[in-house]
């Protein structure tokens, strides 16, 4: 068994869709330990696929909350068995899949406060949840609740200006509204509602952790400018909601010291600080060390853009969240569903299924593609909501096809121009110091990255973000240790 050299460190956790993961980061910001518990592989008794249960109507998607608890037990026991020196942990923070929600049953706080170090968590928390299957971000069953919420505040744009996004089915306020409407008894027996992030923090605190402003921005409930709950939105979703949520806190807040359960059972130091957990995407922004003016572009199955903003312009597309690092700044998230699957389709059709031919086509065509423009959406796009392939000649005439090389450049230039246009629509501006951080499968193709650099007029750097949410959480733990003014110590 590998001996771990004892060193003072912070832990970063990620309670994501498919697993719980942890990294240990030392004071030089080196990752020296990592572990994970994969739900489908290590927790077969819960019967998930991709960490979730898709219900038979195909819209409702949930995950068993006790599976998340059990996964934490497994990792901590494995760390202990491997000889990990918990006494060196100065602080910990973490991330959770955004928008998911956990419903603590009346009396659960007493159980959390009096955990026996002789038992694993899952054996003690079995009766602590009024809803055993938590709704998660893949759920799309709350369209009616979305329309009700938008109507209550004066429309989609009004809701976006208030909370940073128009109503989205996965956003927590709409999920809470559905539970209140369809399961009022469970709602009335709920004393606390957490996000996945604040639920995970509560496990370490041994009491209810507050929701941080950044992950709270993914609920359609938080006024992103004033960083307080919108009473109109709360009232539109369910009664007595404010008392069930508690007050939001700045993301870099120290929310308390670790529960004595972990001191006695695993050897954590009593002074180990818990820094507010946040959403996986805000934590990734921290992990990628994004700064003002930078853009992170994740080129995967879907393409995701992370922006750091000072003056946001909430719109009907994309999401504005409170920034997890700069408490007076913001971050934006833009998701483009037609990402790598679209690139692979055009590669197969126009480059004989070959990336080297695809790259050759990009190298043999000029920036600007002679004025030819193309937009390709073989599946219904999120940003904006449109489907189909749309090509325009230099004379601005709609055309049914392009020559192979022109088609390939039109796809890539069109994808990146759309990203820049929607980013600027949210208030983003390319600055002289702007860096573009590229990650994901397509970031291995230099010719694709050259088009990205040309469209944004900024240098492109490739980064590995495999552990970005975990590593960002460990960075945030170090950040929180710096103390006031943003530390909120749990009473
Ligand atoms: O819904 C999302 C962001 O709005 C997803 O990226 C989830 O955070 C994934 F867990």
TrEMBL record:
Instruction: List the GO cellular component terms.
Output: cytosol
GO terms (molecular function) for this protein are:
ATP binding; D-xylulokinase activity
**Reactions catalysed:** D-xylulose + ATP = D-xylulose 5-phosphate + ADP + H(+)
Q: Which domain of life is it from?
A: Eukaryota
Keyword ATP-binding assigned to the entry: answer is: yes
Keywords tagged on the record: ATP-binding, Carbohydrate metabolism, Kinase, Nucleotide-binding, Transferase, Xylose metabolism
Which Pfam family is one of this chain's hits? FGGY_N
User: Which family does the record claim for this protein?
Assistant: Belongs to the FGGY kinase family.
Q: Which PANTHER family match?
A: SUGAR KINASE, XYLULOSE KINASE
* Role according to the record: Phosphorylates D-xylulose to produce D-xylulose 5-phosphate, a molecule that may play an important role in the regulation of glucose metabolism and lipogenesis.
Q: How does it assemble?
A: Monomer.
Q: What is this protein called?
A: Xylulose kinase
In the UniProt record, the gene name given for this protein reads XYLB
